[in-house]
Amino acid sequence: MLSEDTPKTLDHWLAWLVGLHPRRIALGLERIRAVWSRLGAPRPSCPVITVGGTNGKGSTVAMIEAIARAAGYRCGAYTSPHLLHYNERMRIEGQPVSDEALCAAFARIEAVRGEIPLTYFEFGTLAALDLFARAGLDLVVLEVGLGGRLDAVNLIDAEVAVVTTIGLDHTEWLGETLDAIAREKAGIFRPGRPAIIGQRDAPETLRLEAERIGAISYQLGREFDWSQSAAGWRWEPRFGDEKTTSLDSLPYPAVCGPFQLDNASAAIAALMRLPLSFPAAAIEAGLRGVSLSGRFQVLNAPVTWVLDVAHNAESASALAANLRELPCSGRLHAVFAVLNDKPAERMAAPLARLIDRWYLTQTGDERALSAKDLAARLAGLLGEGRYQVFGDIALAIDRAAAEAQTGDGLVIFGSFTTVAAALRHPACPRI
């Protein structure tokens, strides 16, 4: 039941949600399923694609969404976390939902929640499902928040499920080995439905779990693949049916990085398993038009800014590979801030010799690793004289921007809150 104390504005709702559950993360579907049932079990009346994985989820969702919209379909997308505004998490027709729509959805949930505690993410997931069910959509894409099997979005039996990659991340919740993590990620697969695996060398456990569940596996390098071509790249299906044909001379995705062809291939494979039509022209337009803030986002100016939410060892290695291809004639400066549960040393290692000057710092996130502790971890790796330490990220960006010269590159990475601080900074080139 709603009371006079029920929040009225989105900011008030979000502040209230933070304290609703004693734990920030509480995996499991029992509580959220009970509230979802009370809410009327809202589900989009259209096909749903669920996207999980360690890295590449956001890019894959963005490409699916861009292609679907280019094909003329009304698409909803749910992603997390956000960079600047909570509304970024829920998009309808490419636009963030309004404060008013979110507040109305939150109020409907609170009216039936009773005494069941929900986490911040669970409450938001229910709001997304409620809004998408009301929007008359043709396709919905849901990004898994953490893991898969026990994640809130796994309430929905998706028509197609995608697992992009498997890496060592969130081990305290998902397990200490790649096999254990693969089993958790595979929890989004469903019997008799397509299970897209977007990693060539994914742990075999992932495919074995798909088979155990009874899902139909389609894996990069087996049931589909990509190759370079003279005029772009080629997507090649090996689905064993005549309905799905190769796509030649595709444009490279507008999001940067050679690994994005893996993500694009998985996105196309997922779309091709839906009961919808995606002409080649729509796929090409979607790839050209896709955008995603904070994923190797290059802002050109006298000093080139590179923003990347890379927050684990695998994504930091991908960032290093991208930086090697960056047309930057000067020195590279890096502002680095991470959360306290991340492997800071393994994240910095692939970049250690690429970066000329390091600015080690911390964000205002309650989970942030302190700049002092970050410096202690990295002192041996970076060596004396190559780094400075700042207790406030705005000051670190101030110094890095002041010391960078025309032709230099300024890399800001380590978490979503790190990139958000960069986007808010007055020195950041305007997009």
From TrEMBL:
GO annotation, cellular component aspect: cytoplasm
Co-factor requirement: Mg(2+)
EC number of this enzyme: 6.3.2.12, 6.3.2.17
Reactions accelerated catalytically: 7,8-dihydropteroate + L-glutamate + ATP = 7,8-dihydrofolate + ADP + phosphate + H(+); (6R)-5,10-methylenetetrahydrofolyl-(gamma-L-Glu)(n) + L-glutamate + ATP = (6R)-5,10-methylenetetrahydrofolyl-(gamma-L-Glu)(n+1) + ADP + phosphate + H(+); 10-formyltetrahydrofolyl-(gamma-L-Glu)(n) + L-glutamate + ATP = 10-formyltetrahydrofolyl-(gamma-L-Glu)(n+1) + ADP + phosphate + H(+); (6S)-5,6,7,8-tetrahydrofolyl-(gamma-L-Glu)(n) + L-glutamate + ATP = (6S)-5,6,7,8-tetrahydrofolyl-(gamma-L-Glu)(n+1) + ADP + phosphate + H(+)
Enzyme class: ligase
Domain of life: Bacteria
InterPro entries named in the record: Folylpolyglutamate_synth (IPR001645), Mur-like_cat_sf (IPR036565), Mur_ligase_C (IPR004101), Mur_ligase_C_dom_sf (IPR036615), Mur_ligase_cen (IPR013221)
Pathway named in the protein's UniProt entry: Cofactor biosynthesis; tetrahydrofolylpolyglutamate biosynthesis; Cofactor biosynthesis; tetrahydrofolate biosynthesis; 7,8-dihydrofolate from 2-amino-4-hydroxy-6-hydroxymethyl-7,8-dihydropteridine diphosphate and 4-aminobenzoate: step 2/2
Residues in Mur ligase central domain copies: 51-270
UniProt keyword annotations, A-Z: ATP-binding, Folate biosynthesis, Ligase, Magnesium, Metal-binding, Nucleotide-binding
Molecular function terms from GO: ATP binding; dihydrofolate synthase activity; metal ion binding; tetrahydrofolylpolyglutamate synthase activity
Any one of the GO BP annotations: folic acid biosynthetic process
Pfam families noted in UniProt: Mur_ligase_C, Mur_ligase_M
Mur ligase C-terminal domain ranges (all copies): 294-416
PANTHER family found in the cross-reference section: DIHYDROFOLATE SYNTHETASE-RELATED, FOLYLPOLYGLUTAMATE SYNTHASE-RELATED
Subunit field text: Monomer.
Family classification: Belongs to the folylpolyglutamate synthase family.
Function statement: Functions in two distinct reactions of the de novo folate biosynthetic pathway. Catalyzes the addition of a glutamate residue to dihydropteroate (7,8-dihydropteroate or H2Pte) to form dihydrofolate (7,8-dihydrofolate monoglutamate or H2Pte-Glu). Also catalyzes successive additions of L-glutamate to tetrahydrofolate or 10-formyltetrahydrofolate or 5,10-methylenetetrahydrofolate, leading to folylpolyglutamate derivatives.
The name this protein goes by in its record: Dihydrofolate synthase/folylpolyglutamate synthase
Organism listed in the record: Caldichromatium japonicum
Gene designation per UniProt: folC
